[in-house]
Amino acid sequence: MESIAGYFKVLLDFGPNVVLPFFIFLFALALRTKPGKAVRAAIFIGIALIGIKMVIAFMGDNLGPAMKALSKNSGLQLNIMDVGWGAVAAAIWSTPMGAIGIPVLLVFNLVLLYFRATKTLMIDIWNYHHLITAGVLTYFATGNVYLGFAGMLLAALITWLIADWAAPFLQRFYGLPGISMPTLSSISELVIAAPMNELFDRIPGIKNIRGNFDSARKYLGIFGEPAVLAVIIGLVIGSLAKYSIKDSINLAMNLAAVMIILPKVVAILMEGLMPIQEASREFLEKRLGHREIFLGLDSAISIGHPSVLTAALILTPFVLVLAAVLPGNQVLPFADITVIPFRIAFVVALVNGNVFRTLVIGAVVLMQVLLCGTITSPALTKIFLSVGGKIPDGAVGVASFSGGSLFVTYAIMQTLSFVISGLIISAVVFGLFLLVAKSQQKKAVKLMEEEEENTYAGIQSASQKA
Questions:
Q1: Whole-angstrom distance, CA of residue 237 vs CA of residue 390
Q2: Is 175 inside a domain boundary?
Q3: Which pLDDT band, with edges at 50, 70 and 90, does 6 fall under?
Q4: 402 Cα distance to chain centroid
Q5: pLDDT tens across 240-295, in order?
Q6: Is residue 466 part of a domain?
């Protein structure tokens, strides 16, 4: 096992820009894709992922200083520093469970697929770190290595099952047939979003609030255009950060660039995926009798949607308000400000882009991230220090918007550590999710079908008039 883990450690050292395309290439060959097409698909997917990260980094370079200035101007005094998901992932990969976890999770995924316990084949090896994090946090919290591995496998099982459940409406909303997105940092928020959305469906008045981001853009005209909206939001953030007019305009234009460029980068990803999707369909029809299997990819392929980016830009300055006023929070949002699109992307799809529900549920999700980050910070800080990390000056601990801040990871850690309060909270939330999961999936798909029908009817009507 150690020698296998060593091979994976060498592979991981190449980084996600190489690891995922490599596994895409192997997967394509396994599906009997021609080598030339397999190479092209892998390269295009790798290029797209690099592009997405470049655009997100560019957004961080612009939003980060603005949010830091906004935080300083507001006088926030919080002592747990958000060091970012990258620092957390690096710390997790550096633990003994890091590289060992990959072959264990690969075998576990294949076993579950064989026994039809899941439809998701997670080839996004890099994002295994979210699953391994649940195990490492549990181990550091309990001191029990068996509970640590149990936490990792439980995180994987929950992630893949929810990915299967979410696949029908995510595929429709984002136009990704045959794909699931088992990225725990996005999947986790659905456990909270689904019960909240069901509640909104039952409240008179609120259940009739239908406007989504697309209809809002039509109503607002030029001010609803993604680029123009990004400029407006950028100017507001610059004003709150007390930027000069020049710096505010530069921030606004850079955010508008992100809004337009990111969807185009995602289009490159789709071009790379097309031959693999076709090969998957043909392979499954011949070998597995039309059995449905989803190709599990990074949720990064969803964040280029204009509705996701618009909601994220609106919620970004709001997270500092939440950090300041939320009782019990000690996390100062900083490095992971730019991952808010990942936290709300699946929420946007679940509510079919409904503006009101996206923003309200998104705010609750961010509150949960801050509170869970505060609670799990001691264990994460212990891991961080054990691999040579340094706590930033003025802070007593570290956190991020991933790791223990994700509700699924928090729930696993608290449950396996036998923390009564956390166990009760986890049982209630997961119980509510299971109670509404079936109806929420059907409603999400039905909403999208109705919208497609209305769009088609509108096109037909327009063509008849012409």
A1: 31
A2: yes
A3: low
A4: 9
A5: 889 999 999 999 999 888 878 877 887 787 788 778 767 766 776 676 666 788 88
A6: no
Give the span between the Cα atoms of 307 and 352, in whole angstroms: 10
The residue assigned the tokens 């936290």 is 343
Domains held by the chain: number: 1
**pLDDT for 342-376, tens place per residue?**
999 999 999 999 999 999 999 999 999 999 999 99
Token pair 């576990």 is at which residue?
Answer: 108
CA distance to 79, 90, 139, 254, 442, per residue, from 399 (Å): 10, 13, 17, 28, 36
Q: What's at 377, amino acid-wise?
A: S
Whole-prediction pTM value? 0.83
Residue 142 lies in a domain: yes
- The domain of 180 spans 2-456
In a domain, 443, yes or no: yes
